[in-house]
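Same chain as my last thread, 403 residues:
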Amino acid sequence: MTAVSESADLRKAGPSVHFDELMQQPPREAGAHFKMIKELQEQAPVHFGEASGNPFWVFTRIEDQRAAYQNAQVFSSSAVVPDSPNPPYFWIPEMLDAPLHNKWRKLLGPLFSPGAVEAMEAKIRERFTIVMDAVAAKGSCEFNQEVALKLPNQVFMDLMGLPVEDADQFQVWETQILHEGSSASEAGMQAAMAVHGYFDKLISERRAAPKDDILSKALSWEIDGEPISHEDLLAFCLLMFMAGLDTVATQLCYTMYHLANNPRDRQRLLDDPSLIPAAMEEFLRYYSFVTPGRKVLRDVELAGQQLKAGDMVFLPLVAANRDPEEFPDADSVIIDRQVNRHVAFGAGPHRCLGAHLARLELNVALTLWLERVPDFRIDTSIPIREHGGQIGLINLPLVWDVR
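reply #2:
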């Protein structure tokens, strides 16, 4: 990757970034993907590359990313991964454009409103207390598998009315879809088909015997006076499955990774737990792991470059959230940062619908963990690895002294 001028015709110069090298396998050391994206940002605000033979652009400034997110008429969500501009999969509502996207958001909004989420807090605390009961007295754990994945998995199962014992299988499928190469890979497609099969059966069961869960509610929804089709319900379930099982767990892992490596920050939170919400916003900013893409629908100029219809754009949120023009000391974690207009949940019409729920889960988990395990560290005998795709830690071995 070489430095380029913003005014240069990057397409004419040829690809300087290759998507498989930047974001895919093999696994790397913790923080490697963030480092590569930061290097791109330091070299130039925009790069031209190739992803499995497809042209794509990387934008590293928050103002350019916001411009793309907010112009959904040009930057379409119908494709969200640079190496798959014509995806064989479909997620609802993430891969919908207006006006249909707006209609789905209107249906889903009440389920994830601040009031609806607040009503979940007692159950979320109960779920995470059970998780903590299983590990607190052990003195060590593989945090990703034993803790981070347990809470969002169980919250998702509650929301969808699913048996908690199925959560482990769901995580296997999740990993294959999001973290083992491209979403269009053979393993990813097989996992997606398995999830479709699971929910295909579940939809039939809920039609016969509805419950008090999201899927049962969705069966009664209509758009433009028509019931939602079976295929669209399946696409909706697939997105709920991925969003519900992966994102909170990944953020929890990076949060604990940071606190294990930065005991001063951890002690400040122990001394003053009221700092936890602000600290979590800073962790969301600094460790922004989501890497969205968009498909260009018509020729347009952005950041001085001529984008063509059919190009893909890559908008790694960590680049936006570590933009020094937006955030003073952008490359430092400041747990009591006063102004923090991060875009960890995206921007524009596709801003994350579950942001309120994610924040609640993260704050509850961090609060209860620090109450039970205040002093912890990384087991340095075990290498920590990080996957690409949607960036995340594969493992996080923690140890602590049992009192």
